[in-house]
Design a protein that fits this description.
- The chain is mainly α.
- The protein has one domain.
- The chain contains six helices and no strands.
- Helix 5 packs antiparallel against helix 6.
Length: 161
């Protein structure tokens, strides 16, 4: 049975071998913080781009996660496409979106998609379809025109996964 100091020496030698980093291997490069995502993936009307640049950063984390506690009962922390495409709008006691008859995202029809309408309402300051424009709260800035246009175009193209 090795002594305590021999075990420590063996552990240190093992760890020393783990410190070499291959600078050419992307798996060993430091990860960019979430705010750097737009630089990593250009904003395009594709789900992958929208998910990285907008949905994860500006929707899922701040409001649309937590199961039954998600804003508007709209939890995007799992399968984002399945949670929004062709799904009827839901509501809470203070948000009557369920009564609007709209779908969260109706493929091909941005102006009949609640997500698009609520983003546009916040950005343009127009009357709300139901509840409050998104992102909710006076302290949250609206999405940029470019971000809203990319989401609208993705919906117009059929909201493919």
């Amino acid at each position: 049975m090795p002594t305590r100091s021999a075990s420590l020496l063996l552990a240190l030698a093992t760890l020393a071998g783990c410190t070499e980093i291959d600078d050419g291997d992307p798996l060993f490069q430091p990860r960019e913080p979430p705010d750097a995502a737009p630089d990593a993936w250009p904003l395009e009307p594709t789900f992958g781009s929208l998910d990285v640049n907008i949905f994860r950063r500006k929707c899922t984390g701040p409001c649309h996660s937590g199961g039954a506690f998600a804003a508007g009962n709209f939890d995007m922390s799992g399968d984002t496409v399945a949670s929004m495409v062709n799904v009827p709008a839901a509501g809470t006691p203070t948000n009557m979106c369920a009564e609007s008859g709209l779908r969260r995202v109706l493929p091909g029809f941005p102006k009949a998609s609640l997500v698009y309408l609520k983003l546009l309402e916040k950005a343009k300051g127009t009357p709300d379809t139901c509840g409050e424009g998104m992102p909710q709260g006076a302290n949250r800035l609206p999405l940029s025109d470019e971000e809203i246009a990319a989401i609208g175009e993705w919906i117009r193209l059929g909201a493919p996964p």
